[in-house]
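Box 4.2: Ligand-aware structure prediction
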Amino acid sequence: MRCPYCGSLDTQVKDSRPTEDASAIRRRRVCPDCAGRFTTFERVQLRELTVIKKSGRRVPVDRDKLMQSLSISLRKRPIDPERVERMVNGIVRRLESHGEGDVHSVRIGELVMEGLRALDPIAYVRFASVYKNFREAGDFSTILDELARSDSDGPDFTPSLHKLPDPA
Ligand SMILES: [Zn+2]
Protein backbone atom coordinates (compact mmCIF):
# COMPACT_ATOMS: atom_id res chain seq x y z
CA MET A 1 0.00 0.00 0.00
CA ARG A 2 1.48 3.30 -1.12
CA CYS A 3 2.13 5.91 1.57
CA PRO A 4 -0.39 8.76 1.10
CA TYR A 5 2.14 11.27 2.40
CA CYS A 6 5.40 10.57 0.58
CA GLY A 7 4.42 7.97 -2.02
CA SER A 8 6.69 5.25 -0.69
CA LEU A 9 5.55 1.74 -1.60
CA ASP A 10 7.18 0.18 1.43
CA THR A 11 4.62 0.79 4.21
CA GLN A 12 4.28 -1.68 7.06
CA VAL A 13 1.22 -3.05 8.87
CA LYS A 14 1.49 -2.40 12.60
CA ASP A 15 -1.84 -3.71 13.72
CA SER A 16 -4.66 -5.63 12.09
CA ARG A 17 -8.03 -6.35 13.59
CA PRO A 18 -11.70 -6.56 12.66
CA THR A 19 -13.99 -3.60 13.18
CA GLU A 20 -16.54 -3.94 15.95
CA ASP A 21 -19.22 -5.36 13.69
CA ALA A 22 -16.64 -7.56 11.93
CA SER A 23 -17.65 -6.24 8.52
CA ALA A 24 -14.13 -5.03 7.79
CA ILE A 25 -10.50 -5.47 8.78
CA ARG A 26 -8.81 -2.34 10.01
CA ARG A 27 -5.05 -2.14 9.45
CA ARG A 28 -2.87 0.49 11.01
CA ARG A 29 0.11 1.21 8.81
CA VAL A 30 3.28 3.16 9.19
CA CYS A 31 5.65 4.41 6.53
CA PRO A 32 9.33 3.70 7.27
CA ASP A 33 10.40 6.51 4.94
CA CYS A 34 8.46 9.45 6.38
CA ALA A 35 6.99 7.92 9.58
CA GLY A 36 3.50 8.80 8.34
CA ARG A 37 0.68 6.76 9.89
CA PHE A 38 -2.57 5.84 8.23
CA THR A 39 -5.33 3.24 8.38
CA THR A 40 -6.73 1.04 5.66
CA PHE A 41 -9.91 -1.02 5.62
CA GLU A 42 -10.44 -4.31 3.91
CA ARG A 43 -14.08 -4.93 3.00
CA VAL A 44 -16.17 -7.39 1.10
CA GLN A 45 -17.13 -6.15 -2.32
CA LEU A 46 -19.83 -8.25 -3.88
CA ARG A 47 -19.62 -6.49 -7.21
CA GLU A 48 -18.38 -3.38 -8.94
CA LEU A 49 -20.82 -0.53 -8.58
CA THR A 50 -21.08 2.34 -10.98
CA VAL A 51 -23.11 5.45 -10.43
CA ILE A 52 -24.79 7.05 -13.42
CA LYS A 53 -24.65 10.79 -13.11
CA LYS A 54 -27.22 13.12 -14.54
CA SER A 55 -24.88 13.91 -17.39
CA GLY A 56 -24.91 10.21 -18.23
CA ARG A 57 -21.31 9.84 -17.13
CA ARG A 58 -20.47 6.67 -15.22
CA VAL A 59 -18.11 6.76 -12.28
CA PRO A 60 -17.34 4.13 -9.63
CA VAL A 61 -19.37 4.41 -6.42
CA ASP A 62 -17.04 6.03 -3.93
CA ARG A 63 -17.64 4.74 -0.41
CA ASP A 64 -15.15 7.17 1.13
CA LYS A 65 -16.86 10.12 -0.48
CA LEU A 66 -20.18 8.91 0.85
CA MET A 67 -18.72 8.52 4.34
CA GLN A 68 -17.25 11.99 4.15
CA SER A 69 -20.51 13.66 3.23
CA LEU A 70 -22.31 11.78 5.99
CA SER A 71 -19.74 12.81 8.56
CA ILE A 72 -20.41 16.42 7.62
CA SER A 73 -24.15 15.98 8.11
CA LEU A 74 -23.46 14.19 11.39
CA ARG A 75 -20.92 16.71 12.68
CA LYS A 76 -21.13 17.16 16.47
CA ARG A 77 -24.06 14.79 16.65
CA PRO A 78 -23.91 12.14 19.38
CA ILE A 79 -24.03 9.23 16.97
CA ASP A 80 -21.89 6.15 17.42
CA PRO A 81 -19.54 5.94 14.39
CA GLU A 82 -20.21 2.21 14.30
CA ARG A 83 -23.85 2.91 13.51
CA VAL A 84 -22.87 5.19 10.65
CA GLU A 85 -20.50 2.51 9.42
CA ARG A 86 -23.31 -0.04 9.55
CA MET A 87 -25.67 2.27 7.74
CA VAL A 88 -23.21 2.80 4.90
CA ASN A 89 -22.50 -0.92 4.76
CA GLY A 90 -26.23 -1.50 4.50
CA ILE A 91 -26.61 1.02 1.70
CA VAL A 92 -23.69 -0.37 -0.27
CA ARG A 93 -24.88 -3.93 0.23
CA ARG A 94 -28.37 -3.07 -0.94
CA LEU A 95 -26.97 -1.38 -4.03
CA GLU A 96 -24.73 -4.35 -4.70
CA SER A 97 -27.43 -6.95 -4.31
CA HIS A 98 -30.09 -5.19 -6.30
CA GLY A 99 -30.44 -5.25 -10.04
CA GLU A 100 -27.53 -4.24 -12.21
CA GLY A 101 -24.12 -2.84 -11.37
CA ASP A 102 -25.20 0.57 -12.55
CA VAL A 103 -26.95 2.73 -9.99
CA HIS A 104 -28.64 6.05 -10.62
CA SER A 105 -27.37 8.81 -8.37
CA VAL A 106 -30.95 9.52 -7.28
CA ARG A 107 -31.25 6.02 -5.85
CA ILE A 108 -28.20 6.52 -3.65
CA GLY A 109 -29.65 9.80 -2.44
CA GLU A 110 -32.90 8.08 -1.50
CA LEU A 111 -31.12 5.38 0.46
CA VAL A 112 -29.02 7.93 2.33
CA MET A 113 -32.10 9.97 3.20
CA GLU A 114 -33.84 6.84 4.40
CA GLY A 115 -30.86 5.83 6.53
CA LEU A 116 -30.29 9.24 8.03
CA ARG A 117 -33.92 9.67 8.90
CA ALA A 118 -33.69 6.55 11.05
CA LEU A 119 -30.28 7.48 12.45
CA ASP A 120 -30.57 11.13 13.45
CA PRO A 121 -33.22 13.77 12.64
CA ILE A 122 -30.77 16.68 12.71
CA ALA A 123 -28.35 15.03 10.33
CA TYR A 124 -31.32 14.15 8.15
CA VAL A 125 -32.43 17.78 8.00
CA ARG A 126 -28.92 18.94 7.21
CA PHE A 127 -28.58 16.45 4.42
CA ALA A 128 -32.08 17.11 3.14
CA SER A 129 -31.50 20.86 3.00
CA VAL A 130 -28.68 20.29 0.54
CA TYR A 131 -30.39 17.40 -1.20
CA LYS A 132 -33.53 19.33 -2.06
CA ASN A 133 -31.47 21.96 -3.85
CA PHE A 134 -30.16 19.27 -6.16
CA ARG A 135 -33.23 17.12 -6.39
CA GLU A 136 -34.29 18.59 -9.66
CA ALA A 137 -30.86 18.06 -11.11
CA GLY A 138 -30.99 14.54 -9.73
CA ASP A 139 -27.25 14.34 -9.50
CA PHE A 140 -26.35 12.88 -6.16
CA SER A 141 -22.63 13.24 -6.70
CA THR A 142 -23.15 17.01 -6.80
CA ILE A 143 -24.64 16.80 -3.33
CA LEU A 144 -21.64 14.91 -2.09
CA ASP A 145 -19.36 17.55 -3.56
CA GLU A 146 -21.40 20.33 -2.01
CA LEU A 147 -21.46 18.71 1.42
CA ALA A 148 -17.78 17.92 1.27
CA ARG A 149 -16.98 21.52 0.42
CA SER A 150 -18.81 23.04 3.37
CA ASP A 151 -16.32 22.90 6.20
CA SER A 152 -18.26 25.11 8.60
CA ASP A 153 -21.37 23.82 10.29
CA GLY A 154 -22.87 22.48 7.14
CA PRO A 155 -25.50 24.09 4.97
CA ASP A 156 -27.68 26.84 6.31
CA PHE A 157 -31.01 25.48 7.41
CA THR A 158 -33.92 25.91 9.74
CA PRO A 159 -34.88 22.60 11.31
CA SER A 160 -38.54 22.77 10.46
CA LEU A 161 -39.40 19.25 9.43
CA HIS A 162 -42.69 20.15 7.78
CA LYS A 163 -40.77 22.05 5.12
CA LEU A 164 -38.81 19.02 4.03
CA PRO A 165 -39.38 17.45 0.66
CA ASP A 166 -40.72 13.94 0.70
CA PRO A 167 -37.64 11.82 0.02
CA ALA A 168 -39.75 9.08 -1.56
ZN1 LIG B 1 5.74 8.00 3.68
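In the box above, the bound molecule is zinc ion. The first helix runs from residue 63 to 73.
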